[in-house]
Amino acid sequence: MDSSTNETLPNNVENKSVRILPLVLKNVSYEKAGMRLIKDLSVTFNFGSLTVILGPNGAGKSLLLRLCHGLIKPSKGTVDWCGPKVSVPQRYQAMVFQRPVMLRRSVIANLSHSLKYRGINKAGRTQKIDNILQHTGLSRLAKVPARLLSVGEQQRLAVARAWSLDPEVLFMDEPTAALDPAATHSLENIIGAIKKSGTKIIMSTHDLGQAKRLADEVLFLYRGRLLEQADAGQFFEKPNNDLAQSFMRGELLWWNRQELKPPEQLKERRQK
Amino acid sequence: MEIGDAFAAAMALIINFESGLAEIVLLSLQVSIIAVAIACLIGLPIGAALAVFRFPGRTAIAVILNAMMGLPPVVVGLIVYLTLSRSGPLGTLGLLYTPTAMIIAQICLVTPIIAALTRQTTEDLWQEYAEHLHSIGIGPWRAVTTLLWDNRFSLITTILAGFGRASAEVGAVMIVGGNIDHVTRVMTTSIALETSKGDLALALGLGIILLALALSVNAAAFIINDAAMKRHG
Fold this sequence. Notes:
The complex is a heterodimer. Chain A is of the alpha/beta class.
């Protein structure tokens, strides 16, 4: 990385060598109350690309992210970090949730809280916070209580807070689901900058446009199964899986394959 | 004495803040404030830890704490009395009939209230924060301190509720303090005594002060909460 880019990036990027990646999931299943919500999922996440997990509501996108991040444990199968620093994988990850979790503190205090628990001293914190506030356009809001921010600003703060931890892997669970187009645009710019700073991003979305704008790699998830993993270019041109094809055409995915047609037609067919 | 005359006499006592009255009021405040402060040191971490930690018997402890919020003061007084009396386990300390004994009794009364209310409000906040705090890798004890700090405004209400309980109860301090003049006489015990003696003016005067205290404590809780909501959302 040359020094000119270094200056525009908020974090210490020169030591962005691989520490915990790749992340390998083997035959992972997750059950809750007798329901299998993630089914026999195997996938490997590698350094470098931005991975988008695509799929309709209830596909298991959020669960998959939480399994990867270690917030929940798989009922079956294994989730393994295979890099050199796997003894403390949590240290090199961060996550942004669909609904931003705002501590009842100012913007600055929200940032400094997580930095403090990562063992960064006061001087280091101040510097990092100034830097991150500038890069996320939150400087003028620094002293405002976080819970008084607009939803868009709150999500930007949540992303800034995760970014400030300088993670190797950043998980994002539909980060723009509650945002309007302007806020989405500004957040996508920040996501782009985070990717450029050398962080592996794994995010879920059900917004096809967003997936097209951001993804290098796509996982298509449907009813707890991984139906397709492909390069973004290839996936958006022609996905192999028929359900992914329907999803790309903007069709509503019904519960079973045979029911891909709207219910009225099904009814007629049954009557015949 | 007519009630009207008693009332006028009471007002005169308050306005002059005559020394006997002042002594009683100050001792009451001293005992209750120290008791509540110590109860906070015990009850706040216990309440927040109950909200965060998951262990067998957690629900049982929460139920018992909730039940202990309504402990009858005379029973607490009796137990503390037995503990501190000459033949009791702590009899050698010679604490019975001292303000310290009254503080101990009030700590027993207030700690469950503070712990139980803290657990309730902290649990709601924990629901909201849990994933984020797990995500940044904070251990449970640091989660407890984060939650206590972020919950500080509703905890003020909790603490004031504890203070209200401590300053208003009469049974416990009567038994362990003995209502000794100039030593352990507080507002509630004096009211009980003066009423039975027929000195309605002093009783009424102290009663008015006690009411005013309760009112201002609650007003303060309301104002602090309101301001916090406006400032912090």
